[in-house]
Amino acid sequence: MLAELDQIQRDALADIAGIDSDAALEAARVQFLGKKGRLTAASAGMKDVPKEDKPAVGQKLNEVRAAITAALEEKAAGLTAARDAAAFAGLDVTLPGRPLPKGALHPLTQVLDRAVSVLRRMGFAIADGPEIETEWHCFDALNTPADHPARNESDTFYFDNGKLLRTHTSTVQIRTMETAPPPIRIIAPGSAFRRDEIDATHLSAFHQLEGLYVDEKVTLADLKGTLEFFFREMFGADTELRFRPHFFPFTEPSFEVDLKFHATGRESKWIEIAGCGMVDPNVFHAVGQTRRDDAYDPEKVTGFAFGMGLDRLAMITYGIPDLRLLIENDVRFLAQFA
Fold first, then answer.
1. Are 295 and 181 in contact (CB under 8 A)?
2. Per residue in 155-177, pLDDT tens?
3. Cα(46)–Cα(58) distance, rounded to whole angstroms?
């Protein structure tokens, strides 16, 4: 039996040494170590080995198996190395490498990160809320009457169950006041949806950044100072900014904020960038009805709110003349921001 095992080892090692392909190597493995291989067949003869010889034969059997396995692994590594060498044969390592294109965040993401960074330094925390909203959170709680044009199906995306895609992220302000008592100072970045005709300055799905500050003795001066500081941090100390009286159901008094827009090759013009105002007492009353307390009693607290389009912030930041460029995913356009 020992002589037979020695012969199997010599034959296996000799065959493996001459192998030059993976297929031949697998065939050798099956021939010697497979279920019907020579070494497996020899192992089956252990039952006929005298009892006193079994330890020696068993040890020899393990040594032969280990030797054949090691030879197979060494040959497999050699074949792999040979393939790798062949693949690199003739390769000129002195040639310059092929440059990989540099990636970058989308310009909207860059503007959002910058805006959030400025407002966080001013003490605002980030708040979030659902994009599919109830009419109460989107309109009623924000003092928007039932006959307001924004509630018409021609302006808002409604679902069959009565819910809708939020038309602004002011809904997050309501949800925050429902769950947290004053003082609060939050910003709510996110997507909003309206049935707008898509053109150079309007999209049906767009991005907003809204803010809310509620505390005792918050004044209009606080609002103007906050926005002036924010926009000049975003666009530079020489940014031209103006406030125009306006009307929003959820703020009183209310203002539109315009910035002077400079696009390369075009005449500078004023562009509406944000809406703002002091929180209407009716909004506080609505929140109080939900909370069932007087935490937001308008006789005790005041607040201001603002909202701006991130898409338009990107237009001003980078001098982009058409909002549609931000959603077309044209690599030639996006590569400018890498």
1. yes
2. 899 999 989 999 999 999 999 99
3. 8
Q: Do residues 16 and 122 share a domain?
A: no
Per mean pLDDT, which range of 4-8, 123-127, 187-191, 334-338 is the poorest?
4-8
pLDDT tens track for 275-309: 999 999 999 999 999 999 999 999 999 999 999 99
Domain count, the chain: 2
Tell me whether residue 99 is in a domain: no
Tokens 């990636």, located at residue: 103
> Residue 323 and residue 301: Cα distance in Å, rounded?
39
In a domain, 220, yes or no: yes
Q: What's the CA gap between 285 and 143, in Å, rounded?
A: 10
**Cα–chain center distance at 94:** 39
Q: In sequence order, what DSSP letters do the residues of 83-121 get, joined into one string?
A: HHHHHHTT--TTSPPPPPPPP---HHHHHHHHHHHHHHH
Indicate the SS3 state at residue 237.
coil
Tell me the CB-side half-sphere exposure of residue 186, using CA atoms within 13 A.
Answer: 22
Taken in order 168, 174, 177, 178, is the CA torsion positive or negative? negative
Beta bridge partners of 156: none
Evaluate whether residue 95 is within a structural domain: no
Pairing of strands 205-215, 241-248: unpaired
Residues 63 and 142 in one domain: no
In a domain, 258, yes or no: yes
Asked whether residue 134 falls in the same domain as residue 248, the answer is yes
- Whether residue 244 has pLDDT greater than 80: yes
| Domain extent at residue 67 | 2-88
